[in-house]
Amino acid sequence: MEAAKSSAHHDSAVAAGPVKKLRFAIVGCGGISKHYVQAIDQLDRACVVAAADKNSQTAASFQKRHQIPEVFTDYRDMLANIAPDAVCVCTPNVLHAPVSIASLHAGAHVITEKPMAMTPDECVEMIHAAKIARRRLAVGFQYRFHPTTQMLKRAADAGQFGDIMHVKCQALRRRGVPNWGVFGQKKLQGGGPLIDIGVHVLEMAHYVMGSPRPISASGNVWTFDGNRPNHVPCMWPGWDWQNHDIEDLATGQIRFDNGAILQIEASYIAHIEKDQWNFQLSGTCGGANWDPPQIFTNQAGAMMNMMPAYLPPMDFDGFFKAKLENFIAAVLDEASLESPAEAGLAVQEMIDGIYRSAEAGHEIALRQP
Questions:
Q1: pLDDT of residue 257 exceeding 80
Q2: Predicted confidence band at 326 (pLDDT cuts at 50, 70, 90)?
Q3: Is there a contact between 214 and 254 (Cβ–Cβ < 8 Å)?
Q4: In angstroms, how far is the first alpha carbon of the chain from the final one?
Q5: Neighbouring-strand partners of residue 252
Q6: How many other CB atoms sit within 10 Å of the CB of residue 263?
Q7: In this structure, which topology does domain 22-139 adopt according to CATH?
């Protein structure tokens, strides 16, 4: 399975001068990795040159399905032998930091899947490694590239909401515990629905808010059903309940340095009418709803509910294409990253703070710069 050394080391796509294609490697060949490969295949300035997964059968299957030139069972061997320009980290959360740091030390730019890492301390280590290596480090927050998120961000930047005071986030599944991977194991994922799906709604809401600095967190978590056999028909039956030690429901509140408050609810098992994937914001001049996309304000002496007549369609693969286009532009053209590592750290601080508050039983202060 191990491939022989086949290419000279590329110090960096930027330092080496103009290149036609950014040479990507994938670490972790599970379900999310296919979206990276499919997106890269559509981009003129990128190609996938290698992939790594500790499971040799998974690596071989991934290679065959996506025509990957070379695959490895040890990502460190891949880094040494292939010397990719950039690495997509698609592993379980516990490996995000070590794989990212090793890739940065090897001279590669990195885009890592969400969440950025397991803890804020790991995020800080990753940011430090990127600065030392003088490489780009991005977090795969694809929902900030969603047309609705971009529309609300433009409205916020134009001052249509005034000062945003309150945001409510919801990432709720009525019964949707993942029945694949290691999503139910806290030691490998860092938590449950809050860190897995809540992170998406949290990060795009924080992005629209203008990324204020979180200063404190309070939260609660409950496990009440996922650690028992499931006898209710649902979209993903038969999850690994015996190794399920994550929360089924998390709620939290974040205070920011500008006085704003963000509240979040995240669940794999919520006794509600239907799944919810949304955030709502209230400001001094207006408010908004993500799904359906609406802006609420006062105009012409009346209260107005405004909906866009058209937003360009974008599916899940489209989000990946958009975030990789931005990452490639940041590496090759020195463009600004829309989802930089600093955003990943702020989101991680909020998630970690909610978990720590739930354990402590009271509100806690977050890291100060």
A1: yes
A2: very high
A3: yes
A4: 46
A5: 219, 264
A6: 17
A7: Rossmann fold (3.40.50)
